[in-house]
Amino acid sequence: MRIVVALGGNALLRRGEPMTADNQRSNIRIATEQIAKIHAGNELVIAHGNGPQVGLLSLQAAAYTQVSPYPLDVLGAETEGMIGYIIEQELGNLLDFEVPFATLLTQVEVDAKDPAFKNPTKPIGPVYSKAEAEKLAAEKGWAIAPDGDKYRRVVASPRPKRIFEIRPIKWLLEKSAIVICAGGGGIPTMYGEDGKLRGIEAVIDKDLCSSLLASQLDADLLVIATDVNAAFIDYGKPTQKAIGQAHPDEMEKLGFAAGSMGPKVQAACEFARKTGKTAVIGSLSDIEAIVQGSAGTRISTATPGITYL
Question: What pTM was estimated for this model as a whole?
Answer without folding.
Answer: 0.90
